[in-house]
Amino acid sequence: MQKISITNTMTGKKEPLVLNDPSSNHIGIYACGVTVYDDCHIGHAMQAIYFDVIRNFFEYVGYKVTYVRNYTDVDDKIIARAKERGISPLQLSASVIESSIRDMKAIGVRPATFEPKVSESISDIISMTQKIIENGMAYATASGDVYFRVRKKQDYGKLSNRKPDDMRSGTRDIVVGEKEYELDFALWKADSTADGSWPSPWGQGRPGWHIECSAMALKTLGASFEIHGGGRDLVFPHHENEIAQSEAANCCGYAKYWIHSGLLTIDHQKMSKSLGNHITIQKFLEKWPPEVLRLGFLTNHYQSNIDFSLQVFQTCLKRLLYYYETLNSLDQFAEQFAHDLKGGLTKEQKSKEPAKSVIDAFVSAMSDDFNSAKALGEMNKSFKTAKDLVAGKKSSQKQQDAAYLSAALKEIGSVLGLFRGDVQQEILRLKRQVLPDLGVTENEIEQAIAKRLAARASKDFATSDAVRDDMAKRGIEIRDTPQGSVWSIKFNLEE
Ligand SMILES: [Zn+2]
User: Fold this and answer.
1) Would you say 153 and 254 are in contact if contact means Cβ atoms under 8 Å apart?
2) Which of these, 400, 407, 399, lies nearest to 382 by C-alpha position?
């Protein structure tokens, strides 16, 4: 199997991946999903896209992946929002799940192998809570709450590197209520919300947030699995508590590797509705193609904090168009060779240059802690090679090289969720979106082409050249091909 290294939040180090069953190629991955009380925003897209790419990459290099992403459909925020709207919590969460499925599909994120919901895992949550109580690590109160006994878990805090006593609030009087210790957290909360609470051995209630993921992970992946992840804001308390509960219930290690993605800001500010910079996935897609979002994220390592701005989106849009234009030039240059490789490269073809170098560089970058930023950097070098290739003279060898290069770039692009669409159609779509940025309309370009053709027909080459030069100054390149004049946007992105 391909050797992969992962930065593990648990140790703070980059470690080689060793599967729980080294004789198999199976890997279990759990990523905390969304709390479904409102439409997904691009911060949700960030985590979903990174894990989608990580999963794609594992599969690409031959692993068999069981990927779990849950829906938290029982939660304080859901109950509050449902109340405002006069509907039941589960009615609200069902409609938000539906829009989340639509949004994830629109940004090319594949459904997970399992997508469990809290509301459908209540009996698993109750039996896990019972087990933790039996093991002496949790207790029920007279009011019907159940708390985890933090002090009894000797290594509590090992993920976030915190010691329970340091986290206590010192000399201030803290109302611990029925808790034995102020840091004890709820596994079960007494509650009687209609359509949002369930009977249990401790009375009517609903689960605490952290136990949900522990129970859903156990049900879908077993007590121990390889990778657990989420956004960095989940390290404490969510993931710390998940570890405490799962180890208290199952008496063995939980996830082996913890990976956490960075946080997203817009114009250096946290996204919030009150600041007016809260961008839902839907709102984003009204203006930009989904691949802009992917490229925006993947240009960074998943652990980096990312700051998005209009400029970032515009740069990604232009870069995408450059990629597609270059793929198109390769295919046109390769002619029949490109047609022959339409179905993709065979294993044998992948071992031939120039496909081999492109794929090897990609696999090597991604195997090093899923470094998509480096992978894209390598890809950019191949696009530069491609530009040089199609600018040269045709020979059947060069045409074959072009076809292999194009097929290899499409193949690795697809692992990143790029270049999956029809090249010609994407070019049209992207061109239309880039033009306003250059201050040129499609109509002006068509008129310039017509004027140039008329000038050439009457052998007025001075005018014809002037028209072409004028457009070039505005960022539009007009070229003559056997099929007539075509235009493209000039890029200077190779460096
Ligand atoms: Zn979780």
Assistant:
1) no
2) 407
Burial 280-318 (b: 16+ CB within 10 A, else e): bbeebbeebbbbbbbbbbbbbbbbeebebeeebbebbbb
Residue 495's pLDDT is 38
Specify whether the backbone of 402 is left (phi greater than 0), alpha (psi in -120 to 50) or beta.
alpha
Helix or strand or coil: residue 91? helix
* pLDDT mean for each 10 residues of the chain (495 residues): 96 97 96 93 96 98 97 93 94 96 97 97 98 97 96 95 78 70 95 93 96 97 97 95 96 93 94 87 94 97 96 93 95 94 94 97 98 97 96 95 97 96 91 87 93 94 94 90 83 55
- Write out pLDDT tens, residues 310-365: 999 999 999 999 999 999 999 999 999 999 998 999 999 999 999 999 999 999 99
Cβ atoms of residues 68 and 220 within 8 Å:
yes
94 alpha carbon – ligand 1 mean position (Å): 19
Ligand 1 centroid–CA 213 distance in Å is: 5
Q: Using the structure block, give the residue that is written with the tokens 């140039």.
A: 452
Residue 220 Cα to ligand 1 middle (Å): 13
Task: Give 416 Cα–ligand 1 centroid separation in angstroms.
Answer: 24
**CA–centroid distance, residue 369 to ligand 1 (Å):** 22
Give the distance (Å) from ligand 1 centre to CA of residue 458. 71
How many Å lie between the centroid of ligand 1 and the Cα of residue 137? 20
Name the pTM for this structure.
0.93
- The H or E element containing residue 438 is helix 423-438
444 CA to centre of ligand 1 in angstroms: 53
Q: Where are the beta strands (DSSP E) in 299-362?
A: 306-308
**Ligand 1 centroid from CA 11, angstroms:** 20
What is the CA(262)–ligand 1 centre distance, in A? 16
User: How far is ligand 1, taken at its centre, from the CA of residue 34, in Å?
Assistant: 9
- Compute the distance from residue 242 Cα to the ligand 1 centre, in Å: 7
Q: How far apart are CA 430 and CA 319, in angstroms?
A: 10
Tell me what pLDDT residue 281 has. Answer: 97
pLDDT at 277: 87
Beta strand pairing call for 5-8 and 13-16: antiparallel
From ligand 1's centre to the CA of 33, what distance in Å?
7
Measured in Å, residue 238 CA sits from the centre of ligand 1 at: 6
Dist. CA 417 → ligand 1 center (Å): 25
What's the pLDDT at 87? 94
State the distance from the centre of ligand 1 to the C-alpha of 286, rounded, in angstroms.
Answer: 30
CA-to-CA distance for 88 and 110, rounded, in angstroms? 29
pLDDT in the model for residue 164: 84
